[in-house]
Specification:
The complex is a heterodimer of chains A (324) and B (343).
Chain A (H helix, E strand, L loop, with lengths): L6 H11 L10 E18 L5 E22 L4 E4 L4 H14 L5 E8 L9 H16 L6 H12 L10 E6 L4 E9 L3 E7 L18 H19 L3 H16 L7 H9 L5 E4 L5 E7 L5 H14 L3 E8 L8
Parallel strand pairs in A: 3-4
Antiparallel strand pairs in A: 1-2, 2-4, 5-6, 7-9, 7-10, 8-9
Chain B lengths: L1 H10 L3 E6 L2 E5 L5 H14 L7 E5 L3 H13 L2 E7 L5 H9 L3 E5 L8 H14 L12 H5 L2 H11 L4 E5 L4 H13 L4 E6 L34 E5 L1 H15 L5 H16 L5 E5 L13 H5 L13 E2 L11 E5 L5 H9 L1
Parallel strand pairs in B: 2-9, 3-4, 4-5, 6-7, 6-9, 7-8, 10-11
Antiparallel strand pairs in B: 1-2, 8-11
Helix pairs in contact in B: 2-3, 9-10
Classes of the chains: A alpha+beta (324), B alpha/beta (343).
Chain lengths: 324, 343
């Protein structure tokens, strides 16, 4: 249920100040970005001393889901495309959180994000829907609240609510395990997927069961991720991603991972990352290294020649133009 | 509960000292708290250790102190088995003050009688299988505990190119080394032992430097991780421990002196690399010996100048307590090295 810690507070506020949230707008819009899998995924010790499943998402800001929401004063949420039940549930939970009893309306989702390959299409729809609902209600939501609502609607979420901030995020619980405290280092990413890989229903996947050694390895990978972000060092972050993808091979192996590693080794790259529960792979380059965009363009060619599909290059927190 | 956890966690956390521009020391008050707490945490979580249960271990050193602290705070009973030649009354008093039962086994041969201690331990376990034995020599959990050290090092210093540390159980060097090498595959691992320890192929004999080396071979020593091995005699180790106090204000045990001796030499000769050295404990236990001029004056060879470089060995042989030797191990197994030595 979306009964969150702060919903009672909103109930109180509504009772005290009348129908503050009933001044809805005729329409609300929201959007959310895609991601290109993760730089790190595993289990991590939280402030409470317990282990939590967590991840460091690699944002893909050029692909987005846009949600538009028209509130109506009657129950029921219709979606277009039809049957986007998670996004509809997210709208309902958002209304419930805001203390709006009779919330209903029409939700339109327009997305450029491919479904089922680990780009986070479903989460982006859910987050965009929450944002559009809040916008229509004339309310701003904290990112942490948006995450809680998304987990309630979907069972799990990812860190795209935080855009290009680098956070270690507990995807099944919807909270931040560690703020790495800054934006990502400057990266060029050549992303692709295995053409023979089938789309994956992320949420139906069984959770990886990590052994004690892997859990301790995640501790040191988290430390190196923190260092790389504090120092804006793409090379250290590349090592984190490569090792995380290597561990992932033991749990949800990608058939052509080794071929991708070999391409990465020949290409001035910092490392390789994967969608741990998807089919994507990405080779990371230091965007500020001399000739980086030429190297990325060369790499796009060699990745295509190696038979990978959906090859694209994108920049994260980098200046200048991409060479295609 | 969280209060005690925070205290032990702070106590097991090293202070970092920059001994040279390219040399970082992780200087511990009591390094063995890392594996002691990690192992007890895991034994609790898995149900191997019941509430109010008993722990037993054979130790004459700082692992005993560490597990005695954890046991006291968590309400476990503890039996420590040591040998008559290894007991120090002041140290035993401290263990007993923490609530530990210290059993002392005769040691007719003067080699620490590890076999006799293990026989006694197994007798105790046989009579009560619920007792938890951490097995610091052989349990892989000893090595896994050092991820926490690597966590702290990496957050503060990033890439490390060379790791230097003493070997006794192998837990700290092989644990820290494995996690660092997972992040930095080119990491060089330099082991520090002492003459007449059997860990790296020397014949066993009487050893003057305590706290490193061994007369049995623990499973936690993973020889094929080690790039080079150094054997440091007691006197250069003492001299270097004195230098750490004088030059850096670091009051550490003699094993830290041995490790710092090797690490300083390595860092001087490899100015482009960043070296990390592990310094496992403080000097309080050695105030009447290593830090006592009267006691030192009774040793032949003292005062001992700090050697500038080790003697390179082609064949593995024990040295004098005044000497420092090294051998290119090159990530081989003990069997492989011994077979080559027999040729």
């Amino acid at each position: 249920m979306a009964r969150t810690g702060s919903s009672n507070r909103h109930d109180d506020k509504r009772n005290a100040s009348g129908s503050a949230f009933k001044l809805s707008r005729p329409v609300g819009v929201g959007h959310a970005i895609a991601h290109h899998g993760e730089l790190l995924q595993g289990v991590f010790e939280g402030q409470d001393g317990r282990l939590h499943r967590g991840l460091l998402t690699l944002p893909l800001p050029s692909q987005r889901s846009h949600a538009t929401f028209w509130p109506r004063r009657e129950a029921g949420i219709r979606t277009r495309p039809a049957n986007r039940t998670k996004a509809a549930r997210a709208v309902a939970f958002t209304f419930e959180h805001l203390g709006i009893a009779e919330g209903g309306g029409d939700l339109t989702l327009e997305s450029t994000i491919a479904i089922g390959h680990g780009y986070g299409s479903s989460t982006a729809d859910v987050v965009a829907a929450i944002r559009a609902t809040a916008c229509a209600s004339g309310v701003g939501l904290r990112r942490s609240t948006t995450c809680t609502l998304a987990v309630a609607a979907e069972g799990a979420t990812d860190a795209i609510v935080y855009g290009d901030q680098a956070v270690l995020f507990a995807q099944r619980e919807g909270f931040i395990i560690e703020h790495f405290g800054d934006e990502f280092p400057p990266l060029l990413i050549v992303g692709f997927k295995d053409p023979d890989a089938n789309p994956i229903d992320t949420l139906s996947l069984e959770c990886a069961r990590y052994d004690a050694e892997e859990i301790e390895l995640f501790r040191v990978l988290r430390a190196l991720a923190c260092r790389s972000i504090r120092q804006q060092d793409p090379w250290l972050l590349g090592r984190v991603a490569t090792m995380s993808s290597r561990i992932s091979q033991r749990h949800l192996p990608k058939p052509r991972w080794q071929a991708a590693v070999e391409l990465a080794q020949d290409s001035h790259s910092c490392g390789i990352q994967v969608a741990h529960s998807g089919t994507l792979l990405g080779i990371l380059l230091d965007a500020e290294a001399p000739g980086a965009s030429t190297h990325a363009a060369d790499l796009v060619g060699s990745v295509r020649r190696a038979g990978f599909a959906d090859v694209q290059s994108f920049a994260l927190n980098a200046e200048g133009m991409m060479v295609e | 509960m969280s209060g005690e956890g925070d205290y032990l966690r702070a106590f097991e956390t090293p202070r970092f000292a920059q001994l040279a521009p390219n040399l970082i020391a992780a200087s511990f008050s009591l390094m063995k708290l890392l594996p002691a707490r990690f192992m007890v945490d895991r034994a609790q979580a898995s149900g191997r250790l019941k509430r109010g249960g008993r722990i037993v271990e054979t130790t004459s050193g700082t692992f005993g102190l560490a597990i005695a602290m954890v046991s006291a705070v968590r309400g476990y009973k503890l039996t420590l088995i040591t040998a008559s030649t290894l007991t120090e009354p002041k140290f035993t008093r401290r263990l007993e003050r923490l609530g530990a039962t210290v059993l002392t086994i005769d040691d007719p041969l003067g080699d620490g009688n590890q076999r006799g201690r293990l026989d006694r331990l197994k007798q105790i376990l046989g009579a009560n299988p619920d007792i938890y034995w951490p097995e610091q020599y052989d349990s892989p959990e000893n090595r896994l505990a050092y991820a926490r050290l690597v966590d702290l090092v990496v957050r503060s210093f990033g890439q490390i190119d060379c790791l230097v540390g003493c070997v006794g159980t192998g837990g700290s060097l092989c644990g820290t080394g494995a996690f660092l090498r997972a992040l930095f595959p080119d990491l060089r691992i330099v082991a520090v032992d002492t003459h007449r320890s059997m860990l790296f192929g020397q014949p066993v004999g009487r050893r003057m430097l305590r706290g490193l080396g061994n007369s049995i071979l623990p499973a936690n020593v993973q020889h094929d991780m080690i790039d080079e091995i150094h054997w440091v005699g007691a006197l250069p180790a003492y001299a270097m421990a004195h230098a750490l106090v004088r030059d850096n204000g670091i009051f550490a045990g003699p094993t830290s002196g041995a490790a710092a001796l090797v690490a300083s030499w390595f860092a001087r000769n490899n100015p482009e690399t960043t070296t990390l050295v592990i310094m496992p404990d403080e000097g309080h236990r050695y105030i009447d010996t290593v830090y006592n001029d009267e006691w030192l004056g009774t040793l032949s060879g003292w005062p001992c100048p700090i050697p500038l470089a080790p003697v390179q060995l082609e064949r593995i042989l024990p040295g004098e307590e005044t000497s420092w030797t090294t051998f290119a191990w090159r990530r081989r197994t003990l069997c492989a090295v011994l077979a080559e030595q027999d040729e």
